[in-house]
Amino acid sequence: MILGRETPDVNDHYVFHNELGKGQFGTTYLVSHKTTKREAACKAIAKRKLVSAEDIEDVRREISILHHLGDHPNVVELIDAYEGSKHIYIVMELCKGGELFDRIVARGHYSEKDAATIFRTMMRTVAHCHNLGVIHRDLKPENFVLKTTEPDAAIKAIDFGLSTYFEPQQHFHDIVGSAYYVAPEVLKRNYSNEADIWSAGVILYILLAGVPPFWAQSEQAIFDEVLKGKYDLRSDPWDKISEGAKDVVRKMLVSDPKQRATAQEVLNHPWVREDGDASDAQLEDVVLSRMRKFAAMNKFKKMGMLAVAKTLSKEEIAGMKEVFQAFDSDRSGTVTISELMEGLRKKGVDKAASEVAELVQSMDMDGNGSLDYEEFIAATLSTAKMENEDNLARAFAYFDKDNSGYISRLEVQKVITDFGLDREFGDVNDFMEAADTNKDGKIDYDEFLAVMTAKGV
């Protein structure tokens, strides 16, 4: 017996409906109570998959932690737990509103004040956990959902499967969590509840900038960036974000956990406090901001961005593919001026037709009047992907067809032709002029890097 007690048969109390999702150990179903008709989510964990004493202890701990934290308005409520011959059933309140970040993206209108309000709720939840001697250990955007689809729906923290109890001065040594959000001391296998503050700091950074502070192409490379602990608070959009918001990030993303702010200290920060000094001004839409940056680039850099887009893996551009498909409402494989206008409007960004037309024209590299998939990806790549040296090296190799270590005039012409840009991009001399700074008739890797990483061109 795993729960250590006899329980009624879950089927005596609940009717099982459709499947809501699958996890490592089991499946979550929509259920309804036979008497009250209240809908709930029921996680059915297959006992045969609980092969070790540690697996069993993890299930027991998750149930006990949900009980322990359950009186908080922003923690998912545990209704009951049952044990059958083949499964453990954890019945929890049903959250129908989807992931919090999806709502933010769909809503579009978004200010620092909105970010502070959302973040304050998250930090109150973290403080509640810490005050009750619980580390979440897997704080990430996906683990904050909305109770309902209503505009003012409550935010709920979910998935306490990796959570554990802790005592003051107690340290843990197993690596858990998700790559982008994991604290450096977790990677060093010596951590406590301060690790949650780091993860929440990463979430705040994403709330404000739309991209994670530590990014790379593989999990190990992300870990390396986390251990370095260096992140950008200078380039766009940080130049438009208040010093107060940056100060909160700086206090949370501190590599030394002893120097990191506590949950309560974060809540007491002037920018986070209720009626604090976070601005009402709308943060610029991330996709639109990237498009504007691309529009300002010279032709050679735009073509380099197209080469970067062509050489990225499916996994790396999966998120932007979803964004492209959201704009491409008729599923034609291209985004027109009207589709871009409508897509931006849905995101809460109202722009004049002339401005959107100008933007499309500057991104429409083959001059056919609309944006195809690769043009869109090139124009909306994140700064992290644009400036990643591995990506740029692959883009250089895309030009350098003969692997000579140089890009010749003929190779530039070949890429222009491959991309179907002859009509729009014209004379190869323009490209050589832009990149061949030592005027030797070819572009070496350093010259290519200089063009691709130059600011404002």
UniProtKB/TrEMBL annotation:
Family to which this protein belongs: Belongs to the protein kinase superfamily. Ser/Thr protein kinase family. CDPK subfamily.
Pfam families linked to this entry: EF-hand_7 (PF13499), Pkinase (PF00069)
Reactions this protein catalyses: L-seryl-[protein] + ATP = O-phospho-L-seryl-[protein] + ADP + H(+); L-threonyl-[protein] + ATP = O-phospho-L-threonyl-[protein] + ADP + H(+)
Molecular-function annotations in GO: ATP binding; calcium ion binding; protein serine/threonine kinase activity
InterPro entries: CDPK_Ser/Thr_kinases (IPR050205), EF-hand-dom_pair (IPR011992), EF_Hand_1_Ca_BS (IPR018247), EF_hand_dom (IPR002048), Kinase-like_dom_sf (IPR011009), Prot_kinase_dom (IPR000719), Protein_kinase_ATP_BS (IPR017441), Ser/Thr_kinase_AS (IPR008271)
PANTHER family from the UniProt entry: SERINE/THREONINE-PROTEIN KINASE
Domain Protein kinase stretches: 14-272
Domain EF-hand: from-to ranges: 315-350, 351-386, 387-422, 423-457
Name of the protein in question: non-specific serine/threonine protein kinase
Organism superkingdom: Eukaryota
CDD domains (UniProt xref): STKc_CAMK (cd05117)
The protein's Enzyme Commission number: 2.7.11.1
